[in-house]
Specification:
- This protein is mainly alpha-helical and about 220 residues long.
- The chain is globular and about 45 Å long.
Length: about 220
């Protein structure tokens, strides 16, 4: 006798999207790409829409694989208009767990380890000579990308590389939804340069073990 179809509660794990090849970028191009993506991933308020025209000239000189998706995204935002774009942003990033813009969330979730991971981000900023000046968590992807763009410090590149798994989960979720933000996150994946194994392991160890004892509890 055939078993009834009652096994839908267990679904096959969805694979991550195909690995994207790294696009060769100069340091200046990478910093510009990261700043553009940082701005485009922010909440699309009135100032965001007003500033789109100022961003477009900065696409010139970037490789086509990076510039084209960002240009398409800007055009799509203009066509949709503020109300629809804001609604879509909230539905995408605020209501879907796999679309979190907070990098440590993918590794720790809502656990006590998250606090340690957040302090690690703060320590990474400080190691490069930067302090947070915004009312936002330090692992917020647009903030990390701005840090990379403005500092040009290898610590920022290592921080992104150490959380590439989270970026890829975000990309997979956005691509599965045919989200317009998928192309923006693809630009992050394609902009990341190779990171030497020693640096990557150092940052991953810091994320795992946390900062020195005296820094635990800092906000």
């Amino acid at each position: 006798m055939a078993l009834p179809q009652i096994l839908e509660r267990a679904a096959r794990r969805r694979p991550l999207p195909d690995q994207l090849p790294t696009v060769p970028l100069t340091r200046e191009q990478r910093r510009r790409a990261h700043m553009l993506v940082s701005l485009l991933l922010d909440y699309p308020g009135e100032e965001w829409f007003a500033g789109l025209g100022a961003l477009e000239p900065h696409l010139a000189g970037l490789p086509e694989q990076i510039a084209a998706p960002l240009a398409e995204f800007i055009a799509a935002a203009r066509a949709a208009g503020p109300t629809e774009w804001q609604r879509s942003y909230v539905v995408t990033f605020d209501l879907k767990r796999k679309c979190s813009l907070y990098l440590s969330y993918f590794a720790t979730g809502d656990t006590r380890k998250r606090g340690t991971a957040l302090v690690t981000f703060i320590e990474a900023y400080r190691a490069a000579g930067w302090e947070l000046a915004a009312d936002e968590l330090p692992d917020y992807l647009p903030m990390v990308l701005e840090f990379s763009a403005r500092s040009g410090d290898p610590v920022a590149e290592a921080l992104l590389a150490a959380h590439v798994e989270g970026v890829e989960v975000l990309r997979a979720a956005l691509e599965g939804m045919d989200s317009p933000w998928a192309g923006v996150v693809r630009a992050v994946t394609q902009s990341l340069p190779p990171v030497d194994r020693r640096t990557r392991e150092r940052v991953l160890q810091l994320v795992s073990e946390g900062p020195p004892t005296e820094t635990v509890g800092l906000s």
